[in-house]
Amino acid sequence: MWVEDLPNGKYKYCERYTDTKGKIRKVSVTLDKNSSRAQNEASRLLYNKIDEKREKQAMENDTSSVTFWEAQDKFLAVYNDTVKARTVTARISAKNKIREIIPEKTLLTEITSNYILSLLEKIYYVDNYSYPYMILIKSNISMVLDYAISKGYIENNPSSKVKIKKKIETFEQRQAKKDKYLELDELRDILKQLRIIDKPTALIIEFMALTGLRYGECVALQYKNINTDTIEITGSFDPITHSKTTPKNIHSERTIALSDRAKKILDERIELNSEMNIRSGKPENFIFVNRYNLPEYIETVNSRLRKVKSDKKLTTHIFRHTHIAMLTEVGIPLKAIMERVGHTNPNTTLSIYSHVTDKMSKNIVEKLNKIDL
């Protein structure tokens, strides 16, 4: 211990110590006097301070008491600042589901491969959630555990060893794949009904079916994105922030060639905007807008779709899938379809592509059977 004289006439008693990580630290206390009695008091106070600091540091270094919920909250606080508002909403939904199956007091050290496997098996095999949803939950758990590794809470990610086998596909599931898109006669009937219900909505839906755009991409189209025979996909309309944001991923930013009918739809929509006295023509103006000159909300379009009589569940996304099916039926290669619709992962495209090509193969046999040699 040493003593330093202070300008105000008081005395600063100092001591060095080694912390729990081996680093040299310094503590000090200030007293009015520099007497033997004061030195003894300072020594007592300094060593109490050192004990407190070492104890606090040891507790901070002890990660055995960190719960999964605590790690999840810390991860999301950082993660939510790096993604779009819509993704944040999806993560919160996954978080809520995870907290239904992982109790609040569960420690990170209790999250083992077997623990995760049991949770996912129950979700998929017992509760009959879909395989993609189960994978979504696994992914969200895994991200929290990866974050915990980076913070030094745990040493490895037990979810990396967890594998869940897909259930044998049932007839109903195969039928559900077919229900993901519309046959041409179904599409024609739906468009016919929509033109009566609401013409602007009918134009949006038909344009999506002819281009394969996501709904957000479609209503984010601006006049500056239209060329003579193509459109440029430069962003997506976020229904949470009500603003145009960057595309879903780098492959979503693309140029799409337009059919004659797709070009005609744009002309009709632009003419309709003029009739509705909506500001148009400026590069920044949106095309598929409501009466307030804002991109038409997806909730509004889906509510109009619910008025349509159909054997299939109608949402805006089924028309994107319908576009994939139509391209497949006319013989467009899978890679070209993926590039047109902006898919990076072939699974979604392939699920529709495979189903349509299976149907086409059956049609080939039927046609061959009709040939009389």
From TrEMBL:
* Tyr recombinase domain ranges (all copies): 177-366
Q: Which UniProt keywords apply?
A: DNA integration, DNA recombination, DNA-binding
Q: Which CDD domains match?
A: INT_ICEBs1_C_like
- GO BP field: DNA integration; DNA recombination
**Which InterPro entries has this protein been placed in?**
DNA_brk_join_enz (IPR011010), Integrase-like_cat_sf (IPR013762), Integrase_catalytic (IPR002104), Integrase_recombinase_N (IPR010998), Phage_Integrase (IPR050808)
Enumerate the GO terms in the molecular function aspect.
Answer: DNA binding
SUPFAM superfamilies, per this entry?
DNA breaking-rejoining enzymes
Query: Which Pfam families does the record cross-reference, listed alphabetically?
Result: Phage_integrase
User: Sorted alphabetically, which PROSITE patterns does this protein's record hold?
Assistant: TYR_RECOMBINASE
Q: Which family does it belong to?
A: Belongs to the 'phage' integrase family.
Looking up PANTHER family in the UniProt record yields: PROPHAGE INTEGRASE, PROPHAGE INTEGRASE INTS-RELATED
Q: What is this protein called?
A: Integrase superantigen-encoding pathogenicity islands SaPI
